[in-house]
Amino acid sequence: ECFKEARTILIPKDKDNLTDINNFRPISITSILYRSFAGILADRLHNVSKNVFNSSQRGFLRLDGCFQNTQEILNIIKKSSRCKTTPACLLFIDLSKAFDK
């Protein structure tokens, strides 16, 4: 039952504008039992994910910040610059508001 419950608290991003709902960040408070279980499950899934995901998969995995992604992009650019016959195209998409209603 405690896995189903959480208390959500709205934290203001900017204390000067408390009337705009977009100015708040939701924080969910869950039980210690749930957090412990979720941590154990995350550790086990992390160990399994090494064998499931392609090595170029970066989303939703534990990484060293943006360093690995930046290094991967630089490697692609270097490799492309050596290959004069095939043009390269990089596309960057910001999906931060893709699912907002």
From TrEMBL:
UniProt domain Reverse transcriptase: residue ranges: 1-101
Domain of life per record: Eukaryota
Name of the protein in question: LINE-1 retrotransposable element ORF2 protein (Trinotate prediction)
Organism: Henneguya salminicola (Myxosporean)
